[in-house]
Amino acid sequence: MKLLNYKEQPQWQKNVYALWIGNFATGAGSSMSLPFLPLFIATMGNFPKWELTLYAGLGYAATYLSQAIASPLWGKLADRTGRKPMLLRASIGMTITATLTGFSTSVWMLISLRFIQGMFSGYINNAFALIASEVPQKQSGKTMGTLTTGSVGGQLVGPIFGGFIAGIWGYRIPFYVFGGLMFLAALATYFGVKEDFTPIEKDSQQAKQSAFAGIKNLWIVWAMIISSMLIQAATNSINPILSLFVRELMHGTGNIAWVSGVIAALPGIATLATASRLGALGDRIGPRKVLVGGLILSAAMFFPMFLTTSVVVLGILRFIIGIADAALMPVTQTVTMLNTPPDAISRIFSYNQSAQAMGSVVGPLLASAVAGILDYRFVFLMTCILVLINLIVVLVAYRKDGMALIG
User: Fold this and answer.
1) pLDDT band of 139, cuts 50, 70, 90
2) Shortest CA distance to 155 belongs to which of 53, 267, 300?
3) Which residues form the Major facilitator superfamily (MFS) profile domain (predicted)?
4) Which fold has domain 10-208?
5) Are 319 and 266 in contact (CB under 8 A)?
């Protein structure tokens, strides 16, 4: 088969290249400062442990809370103005807010800027929405998987690079680099993305009706939105206790920080290696089978984590979880796309983003409560239960809609 050079490729493929760069920059930038947020806050005052933990939690959650509130409003606007303006709004907005966060002189200034950043965020979700409106259906799964590798790859590189520069130049520098990366995303979007968009008139009946009005398989779409929330809750629930659990397994000896970093990175490595392949598999056998298989595999890995007493076994299970993750979020995006009319896709994807943001808030809060009341390992049992609930939601939705979707 003849390979087309860049100029001969269809515009949607060129858009994928530019948006991959934007997704990578967003993933790297947003993740490079989060691991060190409590340490940055600690430089702003002499806080007791409980107060430092509270401020770190607020700083982490503020972005996701405002994101959950603002996303539906941006999605509605995107259906009238196009997705490219929303991508530029997100990238330029985060360029400014991330850079200003590095200049924070008080903890409340930092939390406020993190909240404002969440209101302007949404680059990755809008990238998915734009490509979902253009990609041929037969290549949708592979393409969504490829876009996912951009953000996941960035999330792998971000903490490593951020830790390196923070250790040399201080905790403010990663925020400046985050701003620079988002400016790069803005340039890649402005020059590399072209959108053939027909706006919806503000006063038209189409604009006034619910985003869900034209969806045939409504149960399935709602199941994907709920799944996005539960996937994010399950994925992020481990973050607050992972290093503490690793320290317990290592009996407080050895290079705990380095081992914790490796254990944290293993799922992302597996997801990066398998996301596009599993997306292509979904194109061949149907996304339902890949999604259900990913949920079963995920639950099957979280339960042994509850029982494990070895950090090596934990690492192996975490790596396999990364393969399951590659079969989850990209596939939910694909299924949502296949069931949503083009004129409502930005609004539906914005609801999806709000659900993800809420999952990113609820998951760690639940995990902290479970770990505080019971023990670290019970967080894995809780996460297993979340995945099983997710599986039930998906199976019920397909049954209600008579498995109308292909696959």
Assistant:
1) confident
2) 267
3) 15-402
4) Growth Hormone; Chain: A; (1.20.1250)
5) yes
